[in-house]
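Whiteboard transcription, Tuesday session. T.W. wrote the structure tokens on the left side:
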């Protein structure tokens, strides 16, 4: 059973099918006709739209498994994937969770207990309070000694939620109360702690994979510094800034983090990296990550297959020294949100949906043309992943693939992707988590698309010219030309 929806449910089921495993989908009412439901061998309706009444009903999912002879659950990401209580209930029901043990989740699911668990393993950490804030005066003292700005963080936080920057001592009390209230309503836990706010860090994380026989390897890094609201939009592997020595040191540190919680399965150890390439442990995500495809592209491994094999008790079939980085991969999260309007969700009906194709392009998605994007869930509708020999070629391939991708009915992050791939700071590799704040303005998207239209118009004129002269374009033109002609096809794309 895949206890999830959308692109990740499909992605997991595809691998299961390759392995000869029968798949079971679960779905909420609005997801009735979703691709993941149609793909699965069996599917069960689990409730209405709100996730608390459907995808988060752990007990009911377990009951369904027992009733229908389903022996394992893959939780995907989000929803129940990092819920130690659910993991324990699955174990107790005699079922297999494709993921780490409940004990590892307990330790790593909470940012504070994670820091405590790794404190004896020589892992550099961002300076901050070791426990939740309980006394206002004392907390303010700690913040003052760390030096403003500081970051207030929900211990149970995730998905970029539950963080507040405090710029001065005078705001501390008010911000702390807001942070605690937010944490309580979002995560049911008001524990908040203080971390030094690193001004311009890069977010670099290490993918690890462990088996149930104490083997843990790292599958190199992913750089995820292009973020809005502390959440990733563009990810790549490898990072443009790591040296082989630091890659190895971070990889080995990540393996120590995994060993600190007797980890098995796929996991991600997240770090912040400063200008001098000092790295600091942030948290560990005890699940498959959204951006795992870029790691698959550069290692040639199928992470879901490895997860399932580990869950079956198999030992990893390779060692650290067998792993190599092949080429470069970039992922763009295609979210139903408007980069022209603060990246706010902009959902609607998927009126037209044409995927890019060709060499080195992978699309992981969970919708088809004509479907409505429900407001109840994450606005990410697809992931566009490219792979090429070099970073430069990967960026160019991404620009090409974005231009081929035709999504209509609502705004998406596609044009933002082109902006990033063309931006000098990204191209040169000199960027950090402030990229959007520092460089992005909605007007730049418009000027960029005007420029593109101009280029397209020019190309069309040249093309028509060639056709008239019977040049090399003539053959292609006669077989593919739309009745409206190349130029107006470009115009149509704009409208
Ligand atoms: P990743 O760390 O894999 O890059 P994100 O931080 O973008 O993932 O989160 C992936 C998905 O999981 C999103 O739908 C996000 O809202 C959800 N998510 C992650 N952590 C939590 C959490 N602790 N509570 C609720 N939702 C979460
Ligand atoms: P989440 O559980 O929501 O993923 P993380 O601790 O992984 O939370 O942080 C998410 C993002 O927030 C990071 O990638 C980074 O951009 C920013 N961030 C987190 N901690 C700090 C910090 N101490 N200083 C500066 N930025 C931070
Ligand atoms: Mg994180």
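and on the right, the sequence the group agreed on:
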């Amino acid at each position: 059973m895949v206890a999830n929806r959308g692109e990740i449910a499909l992605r997991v089921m595809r691998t299961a099918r390759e392995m000869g495993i029968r798949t079971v989908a679960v779905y909420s009412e609005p997801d009735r006709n979703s691709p993941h439901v149609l793909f699965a061998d069996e599917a069960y309706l689990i409730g209405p739209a709100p996730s608390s009444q459907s995808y988060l009903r752990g007990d009911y999912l377990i009951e369904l498994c027992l009733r229908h002879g389903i022996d394992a659950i893959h939780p995907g990401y989000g929803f129940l994937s990092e819920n130690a209580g659910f993991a324990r209930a699955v174990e107790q029901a005699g079922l297999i969770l494709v993921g780490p043990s409940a004990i590892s989740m307990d330790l790593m699911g909470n940012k504070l207990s994670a820091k405590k668990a790794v404190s004896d393993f020589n892992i550099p950490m961002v300076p901050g309070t070791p426990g939740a804030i309980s006394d206002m005066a004392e907390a303010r003292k700690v913040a003052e000694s760390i030096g403003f700005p500081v970051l207030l963080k929900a211990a149970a936080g995730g998905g970029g939620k539950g963080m507040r920057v405090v710029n001065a001592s005078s705001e501390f009390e008010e911000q702390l109360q807001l942070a605690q209230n937010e944490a309580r309503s979002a995560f049911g836990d008001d524990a908040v702690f203080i971390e030094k706010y690193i001004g311009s860090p890069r977010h670099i994380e290490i993918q690890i994979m462990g088996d149930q026989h104490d083997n843990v390897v790292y599958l190199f890094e992913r750089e995820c510094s292009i973020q809005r609201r502390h959440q990733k939009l563009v990810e790549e592997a490898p990072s443009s800034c790591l040296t082989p020595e630091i890659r190895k040191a971070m990889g080995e540190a990540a393996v120590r983090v995994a060993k600190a919680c007797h980890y098995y399965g796929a996991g991600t150890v997240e770090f912040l990296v400063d200008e001098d390439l000092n790295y600091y442990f942030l948290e560990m995500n005890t699940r498959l990550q959204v951006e795992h495809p870029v790691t698959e592209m550069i290692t040639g491994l199928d992470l879901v297959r490895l997860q399932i094999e580990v869950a079956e008790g198999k030992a990893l079939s390779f060692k650290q020294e067998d792993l190599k980085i092949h080429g470069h991969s970039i992922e763009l999260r295609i979210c139903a949100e408007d980069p022209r309007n603060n990246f706010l969700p902009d959902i609607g009906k998927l009126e037209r949906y044409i995927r890019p194709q060709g060499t080195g392009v992978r699309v992981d998605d969970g919708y088809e043309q004509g479907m409505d994007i429900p407001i109840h869930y994450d606005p990410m509708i697809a992931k566009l992943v490219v792979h090429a020999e070099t970073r430069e070629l990967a960026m160019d391939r991404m620009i090409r693939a974005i231009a081929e991708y035709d999504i209509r009915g609502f705004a998406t992050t596609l044009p933002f992707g082109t902006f990033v791939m063309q931006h000098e700071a990204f191209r040169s590799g000199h960027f950090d988590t402030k990229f959007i704040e520092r460089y992005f303005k909605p007007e730049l998207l418009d000027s960029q698309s005007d420029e593109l239209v101009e280029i397209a118009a020019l190309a069309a004129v040249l093309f028509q010219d060639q056709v008239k002269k019977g040049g090399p374009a003539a053959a292609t033109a006669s077989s593919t030309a739309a009745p409206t002609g190349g130029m107006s096809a470009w115009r149509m794309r704009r409208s």
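Someone added at the bottom: Residues 442-469 form the longest helix (28 residues).
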